[in-house]
Write a structure and sequence with these properties.
single chain; Rossmann fold; binds adenosine-5'-diphosphate; binds magnesium ion; ATPase_AAA_core; Helicase, Ruva Protein, domain 3; AAA family ATPase; alpha/beta; 9% strand; 24 helices; 3 domains; six-stranded mixed sheet
Length: 480
């Protein structure tokens, strides 16, 4: 019997059990099933004002999925990924299809139960809370409904639910500006994982600490420790701040809400303060989730300068919202990030209880990062330590660019296997571009900028091996 049959029977059983047992809610359905039956909305009373009575009991969220769940070839295909769902089960004697509506039914549920029970194990049952409950008392299985529910991803982390929520909060008119300001990603859409990141011991310790705090938030609440769960990531661009926040979301299966502060520009001022509030409301409704506020220095900068009053108001709204959100009470982990810690004022620093430093990687870390990013690549005579030695001052992001350059360069020669030499060339190339970027346009380098001048070989198209000796401190020694 094929897996396809098992998949489809599981689907048929689930829809049948779920339709009959009204105590089950959407968190009892595997994500791939509820995506099919989700009818939109987030189940709150949408006509009511949004002054929020946080009472999201499962009762008033249930309306997103309507009973009975209809099992048709269409819904079965979508939920299980089986191309020909009816073909997969048509030979079984307890299935039937209505030609006209395309609906598939179980004619003898006891038979179907038995057939299914003979073929699944605990592990699989635990992925389907509806069936875990159904078979809980069955002798062959050692599963509980509760365990399966705990393991099932909550509806809050599904894209469909997130979309419904965003629609509810941000109406058509401010949709566009709002999309510039916030970006919400379901954990399944985050493709960054902690395995892909090379972290310092200090970073690992801090992240461990915060996962523990999240795990034990009831305890922390009970002993009155509430000032916890606001992290500030500090470090130069390209050192992994955004990636680490995303990887945490993926690791803990939490939605990732990102606010881009630079998007609070005068262009939208009328609505901005309101949208900042809405963003925090959304985060609370999505909880548990991670709220990532990038470019936090923007806050301080705005407060200091003589900016537009409305802009200051928006920033003050933001600071107040930061104060009012809590990991313990709202289950929102707030992570701020900045490339310019020197520009943060006291008011900003004070709001974070842990500061995590993202330094430029040292040689050992660079070698590790190189190993991680080349995991899927073929590189002859690859020596990450040697490359690390000649890339001091480069960040993880820079190293990624170097590798990309090497790959593309090799492709121009139709090669998909790289060599250590390709990498060394790409490093050199990177350094040249970097020194162009850092060139002082006003002083010293003027001569080099004159057309026809040879900018340290930057324009070389692989001709002569060039003067060599690209040092890595970006000093501007392009004179000749
Ligand atoms: N420590 C690191 N380990 C692995 N990859 C890294 C590291 N630091 C940066 N990167 C890579 O560099 C890129 C940019 O990182 P990002 O998180 O956007 O940096 P930041 O937010 O600090 O500017 C990402 O693709 C990331 O994977
Ligand atoms: Mg970033």
């Amino acid at each position: 019997m094929s897996d396809a049959a098992l998949d489809v029977v599981e689907f048929l059983l689930t829809t049948s059990v779920y339709s009959d047992d009204r105590t089950l809610d959407e968190n009892d359905l595997p994500p791939s099933y509820r995506r099919v039956f989700w009818t939109g909305g987030t189940g709150s009373n949408e006509s009511e004002d949004d002054s929020e009575d946080e009472s999201d009991t499962s009762a008033d969220r249930r309306q997103g999925i309507t009973r009975p769940l209809s099992a048709t070839t269409g819904t079965a295909r979508e939920a299980t990924g089986v191309d020909q769902p009816w073909n997969a089960v048509s030979e079984l004697m307890f299935t039937e299809r209505d030609e006209f509506s395309g609906s598939i039914t179980l004619t003898q549920t006891e038979l179907a139960d038995r057939w299914f029970a003979d073929r699944v194990d605990d592990e699989r049952l635990l992925e389907n809370p509806t069936l875990a409950k159904h078979f809980e008392a069955h002798d062959d299985f050692d599963v509980t409904h509760e365990a399966a529910r705990e393991q099932n991803r909550p509806i809050h982390a599904d894209r469909v639910w997130i979309d419904g929520l965003l629609e509810e909060y941000f109406n058509e008119d401010d949709d566009e500006e709002m999309l510039d300001l916030v970006d919400v990603r379901a954990p399944e859409e985050v493709d960054m994982s902690l395995d892909d990141l090379v972290l310092t011991d200090d970073q690992e310790n801090e992240l461990d600490k915060i996962s523990k705090a999240i795990e034990h938030r009831d305890y922390l609440s009970a002993i009155g420790l509430r000032e916890i769960g606001k992290l500030l990531f500090v470090g130069p661009p390209g050192t992994g701040k955004t990636s680490t926040a995303q990887a945490l979301a993926q690791d803990m299966d939490l939605p990732f809400v990102e606010v881009k502060l630079s998007m609070i520009t005068s262009q939208y001022l009328g609505e901005t303060a309101k949208n900042v509030d809405k963003t925090f409301e959304v985060a609370k409704r999505l909880s548990p989730c991670i709220l990532f506020i990038d470019e936090f220095d923007f806050v301080a900068k705005t407060r200091r300068s003589d900016e537009h009053a409305a802009l200051k108001r928006a920033v003050n709204t933001l600071l107040k919202a930061v104060d009012n959100i809590s990991l313990i009470d709202d289950e929102v982990l707030l992570i701020g990030a900045t490339n310019h810690p020197d520009q943060l004022d006291d008011a900003a620093w004070r709001r974070f209880d842990e500061i995590i430093n993202f330094p430029k990687p040292d040689s050992g870390m660079r070698a590790d990062i190189l190993s991680v990013i080349t995991r899927q690549m073929q590189i002859e005579e690859f020596d990450p330590h040697l490359i690390a030695d000649v890339t001091s001052g480069l960040t993880g992001s820079d190293l990624r660019m170097v590798l990309r350059e090497a790959v593309l360069e090799a492709l121009t020669e139709d090669r998909t296997t790289l060599t250590q030499k390709d990498l060394l060339n790409a490093v050199e190339e990177f350094e040249e571009r970097d020194s162009l970027k850092n060139m002082d346009m006003i002083e010293g380098d003027h001569d080099a900028l004159v057309a026809g001048g040879d900018i340290g070989g930057a324009a070389s198209d692989g001709g002569e091996p060039d003067s060599g000796g690209h040092d890595h401190d970006h000093s501007h020694d392009h004179d000749h």
